[in-house]
Queue: 2 jobs
Job 1
Amino acid sequence: MNWDWERLQRHHLASSVRAVFFQTDHSEYPHATHGGTLFIVKYRGRPHGVTCKHVIGDFDPNMLHVSARTELTPGSTSARLQNLGLATNLGGAAVGSDLGDLCVIEFADDLPPDFFGGTEYPIEEKTVGRSEAEHDLFAIGISKEKSLLLPGGTFALCLLPLRDRGATNDPILRRASARYGQTEYETITGMSGAPVFNLTKQVLCGMVMRGSLRDGLCEVRYADIHNIVHMLHMTQARSPQMTDTRLPLTEAGMKLCGAGLAAWMKPIRSCSWLWHRALVRGV
């Protein structure tokens, strides 16, 4: 497939991507990260963040910085977090799956409606869809290898062309891969939580959960969009008193943790933005 890089870099999905990083109490190292990506969506009129639980790691979720735009500017504030939506009490086919690694970020009710400036990707019937084998895809996220979170550091946006290779043994994951003739990076660390777009159907089709890049072969496992939308629905549709709800399709429960998280975070220092891409030899 011929890849129109300029067009993909201007794709609306790119503006929804954010780096996963955290404020610290250390003046010498004001920001820290394990690497990772989140993206902002709008579901039923309300913005949410979507990412992988494992990118949070041992950091305090209170300190997660979710900026208003992909392009960070010194002094920018963070959206105030209210809850993290996680699947728990997995049963049936969901036991041992990656369902427990899906994470929905619920922002505060008083978040200004224009905080994200229209960069949210809309979750609607016509904008999301499921992939089939041999569909052309791309994933877009943050390269940890090329990013630096110190004051004056650099964030690097990574674009991976892929092709769907079908279902996996995990009921929520699909496999995608591509062989690259040349890349500007040695690993794809940081792509966990990156949205995956189906170019064949022109819809959002999932999110990267894990992957590798070895000897030019990029292998990715990504969560099917069906499960992401289900998580968004359960996070938004719960009653205020409900902390453990059954998900009938997955026999999982919904856990909402961290209610009353810290208010506006410390402003970020400074950074710049770079694009990095893979040169495709054969998808």
Job 2
Amino acid sequence: MELIDDDRSSDDRFREDALSDFDVFYRIAVQVAGVRARAREIVSNTVLDAYRRWRTRATELKPRVWVLCILRKILRATLDSEYSTAAEWQEKSHPEPLAVDPAFLEGLTPTRIRDAVSTLDVDLREVLAFHEIGELSYADLQYVLETSRNEVGARLLHARRELQLQLNRQMQAAPSTP
């Protein structure tokens, strides 16, 4: 009987600690995977994997960060064909940031931003999603992305620059709509 109580307590803690940000997990998966059906499958697999490993997890990570680590691994396994290696990423140019014109900002819409993000490589979408949607600190990102803090900063910088370039291209190609 006590084992059942322990199981129930563990299940409650799992629900409260690991799944409290379920909507964030889904939004990150949609942003990185790009397809809602695929994102639902990825998040479902993440929750199942996290639940299976809940009692044996390492406790040095916050539960939310731990689940996001699992989410990233499942995302990467699912999107393996789109994955760019670190060597490929480092070969890409790192352009200088563009000057931002106030008219540019007025023409931005959530749709344009989503469209621009969707054109980025999976590495760049991933770091933006975990940082901006998941609201992870650099310290937490280094665990989720399995890299150093310096690499996290470099990836974020590169992702923001590429996003800025994509938005600039969009704005030049299409006049703003009211």
